[in-house]
């Protein structure tokens, strides 16, 4: 398995070879400002005490407070969090929002916890981190397996400890707890705006067939958006299985099926097959929306999609990038394609700081403007540098961070 942080550094090296950067800047940008590891005691329902390991990596704050989600996953470790924090710094610079990059996590399988245990763990993470986060310091958000409810518990805990009840310490909260309209769907929505802005340049038809890996927050809303826009979602997977139907899947019915059975398997009118094989479906657009390292040296040549849009963070390894590039399969990189989430998160932070509440239409209008503008700018830069979209996005982001660090 590739180390995600090594992948990130390898991407950095490839991009910075294209144009000149200050040497001292290049040395600094490969290292996080701060890495925090904490032990979180949680009393389990049966009275036992369990210890969990929690993390926060504050990568770079030259452009604003650190910003990035918190992941609860059994495989999460400091290396993964470090890579995700680095990508967040670049991502915020790609969409030009006044935020730096950070990321957090806990090594835990939250599906094995009761609701009470999950709440105590979430509050425990915030208690351990209350000194290092804050509206002007570091503003976390949801990521894999963390929900608006978890954000609300953490926000509440921060308020109890510090007296700051503005909610601006964390984003992705439920609406009634200071959340923003549109935050739930923002990642997929941002990806969709980027897709629309670049569709012709990616060589894709007006109506596309789409395969999606992962059916959580990002994947589910992506399925819904592409489906509602008239594209045909022909295959979808979650961690256990995949389903396919070349005539198109009824996404609203599938969302209901997933809600009631907690799986996409055995959905009526579709064929169930092995989860990982969703990557190899013949389609116009493949959307990885699960975890890192899914497309690697060993399977990249089996991809049949005409283009890939990364809603997940780091789903393609640098070696796979080369194989896809040689095959002529364009990749819209994570730091552009999934930046809608952090953009609307920043809108939420801004609303909390100002005590405002914006309507959904205003949120999406601003999001659309930002995503379209930066997507076109990066595609133009890729053309100018005669390179792929990932390297171009890195160059644009690094130039902006370098400027701020000066
Ligand atoms: P989530 O927990 O809501 O969903 C993850 C989904 O992936 C689940 O359906 C799970 O079953 C599935 N999954 C896990 N392993 C899989 C596998 N091997 N094959 C197929 N499916 C698998 O998480 P999410 O918030 O949707 O995040 C998904 C990805 O998108 C992550 O890489 C995350 O960092 C990225 N992302 C999310 C946001 C956001 O706002 N939620 C923003 C930017 C990036």
Q: What class, by secondary structure content?
A: alpha/beta
In the CATH hierarchy, the architecture of the largest domain is 3-Layer(aba) Sandwich
Strand order of the largest sheet: 9-8-7-6-10-11-12
Which H/E pattern describes the elements? HHEEEHEHEHHEHEEHEEEHEHHHH
What Rg do the Cα atoms give?
Answer: 20 Å
Q: What share of the residues does DSSP label as strand, in percent? A: 15-25%
Helix content: 40-55%
Count of distinct strands: 12
Oligomer: single chain
**How far do the termini sit from each other?**
37 Å
Give the CA-based shape.
Answer: globular
| DSSP helical segment count | 13
Looking at the structure, the CATH topology of the largest domain is Rossmann fold
């Amino acid at each position: 398995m590739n180390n995600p942080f090594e992948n990130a550094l390898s991407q950095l090296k490839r991009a910075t070879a294209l144009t000149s950067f200050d040497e001292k800047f290049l040395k600094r940008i490969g290292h996080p400002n701060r890495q925090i590891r904490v032990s979180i005691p949680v009393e389990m329902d049966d009275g036992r005490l369990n210890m969990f390991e929690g993390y926060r990596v504050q990568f770079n704050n030259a452009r604003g407070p650190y910003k990035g989600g918190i992941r609860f996953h059994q495989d999460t470790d400091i290396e993964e969090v470090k890579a995700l924090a680095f990508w967040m710094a670049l991502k915020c610079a790609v969409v030009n929002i006044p935020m730096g990059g950070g990321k957090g996590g806990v090594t835990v399988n939250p599906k094995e916890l009761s609701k009470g245990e999950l709440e105590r763990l979430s509050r425990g993470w915030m208690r351990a981190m209350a000194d290092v986060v804050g509206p002007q310091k570091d503003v976390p958000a949801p990521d894999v397996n963390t929900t608006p409810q978890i954000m609300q518990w953490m926000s509440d805990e921060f308020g109890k400890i510090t007296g700051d009840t503005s909610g601006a310490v964390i984003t992705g909260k439920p609406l009634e707890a200071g959340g923003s309209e549109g935050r739930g769907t923002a990642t997929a929505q941002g990806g969709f705006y980027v897709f629309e802005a670049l569709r012709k340049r990616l060589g894709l038809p007006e109506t596309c067939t789409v395969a999606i890996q992962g059916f959580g927050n990002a994947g589910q809303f992506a399925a819904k958006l592409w489906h509602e826009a008239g594209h045909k979602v022909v295959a979808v997977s979650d961690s256990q299985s995949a389903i396919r139907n070349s005539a198109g899947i009824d996404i609203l019915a599938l969302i209901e099926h997933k809600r009631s059975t907690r799986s996409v398997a055995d959905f009526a009118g579709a064929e169930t097959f092995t989860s990982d094989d969703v990557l190899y479906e013949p389609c116009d657009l493949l959307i990885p929306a699960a975890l890192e390292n899914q497309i690697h040296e060993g399977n990249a040549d089996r991809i049949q999609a005409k283009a890939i849009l990364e809603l997940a963070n780091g789903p393609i390894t640098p070696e796979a990038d080369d194989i896809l590039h040689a095959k002529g399969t364009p990749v819209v990189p994570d730091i552009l394609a999934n930046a809608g989430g952090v953009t609307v998160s920043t809108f939420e932070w801004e609303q909390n700081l100002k005590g405002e509440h914006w309507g959904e239409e205003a949120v999406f209008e601003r999001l659309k403007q930002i995503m379209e503008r930066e997507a076109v700018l990066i595609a133009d830069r890729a053309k100018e540098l005669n390179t792929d979209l990932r390297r171009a996005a890195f160059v644009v982001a690094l130039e902006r961070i370098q400027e701020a660090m000066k």
